[in-house]
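Lecture 7 notes: from sequence to structure.

We start with a single chain of 99 residues. Read the sequence below before looking at the structure.
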Amino acid sequence: MIVCHTVIKLIYRSCLKSAKAMAGEQMKYPYSLSAKIRRFPFHHFFFVSKCGWVFRYWAISTLICIPIFYKFQKASHSPGNVEQWKKIHEKQFSGEMHH
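Now the structure, written as tokens:
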């Protein structure tokens, strides 16, 4: 939990530094998606808000689940699995298997 909190703070600070490094005037309304993301109050939602734990754990669970889902995707689309399901579907739709 402490490590995650530290990582989020570092990301937040780096975003602030990049925002300060920009030249020119700040837009009155952020039209582009990147401007909207940059202006979003991440600090409030992650650290100040009473519901901050929801956003923190959502971010953590997303980072944990992405590699797991990637492995499932690779396993389900492997050539051996595709061949196996092709045989199963041929058997199902040939009339050999009855419902």
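Residues 1 and 23 are 36 Å apart (CA to CA). Keep this in mind for problem set 3.
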